[in-house]
Amino acid sequence: MTSQYTLHGFFRSGASYRVRIALNLKGVSYEQFGYKLRKNEQNSEAFLKLNPQGFVPALESNDTVLTQSLAICEYLDEIIPTPKLLPDNAIERARVRAFSQVIACDIHPIQNLKILQRLSALGLDEDQVNAWAATTINEGLDACEALIKRQSGPFCFGEDVTLADVCLIPQLVNARRFGASMKWERLMEIEAKCLTLDAFKRAMPENQPDAV
Amino acid sequence: MTSQYTLHGFFRSGASYRVRIALNLKGVSYEQFGYKLRKNEQNSEAFLKLNPQGFVPALESNDTVLTQSLAICEYLDEIIPTPKLLPDNAIERARVRAFSQVIACDIHPIQNLKILQRLSALGLDEDQVNAWAATTINEGLDACEALIKRQSGPFCFGEDVTLADVCLIPQLVNARRFGASMKWERLMEIEAKCLTLDAFKRAMPENQPDAV
């Protein structure tokens, strides 16, 4: 049987990883199509027809293509309400979204491949480029750790996985890759817990069909 | 009478401008507290108690502080449903959110003051820093124009203002400041329409109490 959903992404893309976790949590089966970002395949004519921004991920279903990982995750949460990725209370929802946006707005886009390539093209050497990424991640994850310091439970916001965990786990992969401090006690505990869950394990970069 | 809400922001901050528009659209009165970003006031001890990330805006109400402009806008949309900032249909909601996230994730954070200061500190000259910002904005707004090319109506997504317009208008201020191309026909029409509305006009940077 052909799956209803096709995820256009890349095994190492943190934003694609978020969507894979969300799809797995929701119990949705999907096919994957991988784009090698270093070969600029996301700017191929075929992909630009799906997403004129030329960014992965894009989630295709029937004749609909959705883009931007957080928008896709919220869409999945709306059409498949269980298990829910956002709390019921409006203030708590806002806190989960804010934590997610620290990662999706203020960390990840500043340290993604596209930006690091732009920095290299401006003459920065490899050490400077890696330091740029590590500084961005350290400052951002310091904020994340502080934002949940009054929360308890195994996940970012209590007893249940939320969008915050969906964003956190992929960011920690990049944190390690760029030599970030990894000194965040709560974030490390949450990561260990998440990675016991099948939905997170199956979404890991190394478990994707396009992994090299 | 004291207002229930205090917006901690900065007149020139695009993310604060988004929240001002949303508050105005929802008919909420609010006080403002301005932080001079060039003087690093957002990293003062007092503000870090409100938002450990040290980023504006933050919306304070009673003893609650909410952060991240999109999370704040969605919160306001949930507790004050009229006029709504997101369509009822899940796919349309996802499209409005995706457009908003192109701006809030992929344009604005790459060209904000903090990043431009980091580029200067790495030795880039003023022309290089301004070109960095202009390139980021041009590529991002090209994507925005493409994402709504099949939409009609005076606003980004039809006959009603949505979160997409709330994000677009502040970004266009930065686009002009950095000498972006401003060649986007639909975006320019939408801007002209939005700026006829009182909620947008009152939110403009030059109309804020901390404007200089």
Automatic annotation (TrEMBL), chains A, B:
Transmembrane segments: none annotated. GO terms for molecular function: glutathione transferase activity; maleylacetoacetate isomerase activity. Residues 3-84 form the GST N-terminal domain. The keyword tRNA processing does not apply. One of its GO terms (biological process) is L-phenylalanine catabolic process. One of its GO terms (cellular component) is cytoplasm. It comes from the Bacteria. InterPro entries: Glutathione-S-Trfase_C-like, Glutathione-S-Trfase_C_sf, Glutathione_S-Trfase, Glutathione_S-Trfase_N, GST_Zeta, GST_Zeta_C, GST_Zeta_N, Thioredoxin-like_sf. Keywords: Isomerase. Pfam families: GST_C_2 (PF13410), GST_N (PF02798). Residues 89-212 form the GST C-terminal domain. NCBIfam families: maiA. Belongs to the GST superfamily. Zeta family. PANTHER family: MALEYLACETOACETATE ISOMERASE. This is Maleylacetoacetate isomerase. It comes from Hirschia baltica (strain ATCC 49814 / DSM 5838 / IFAM 1418).
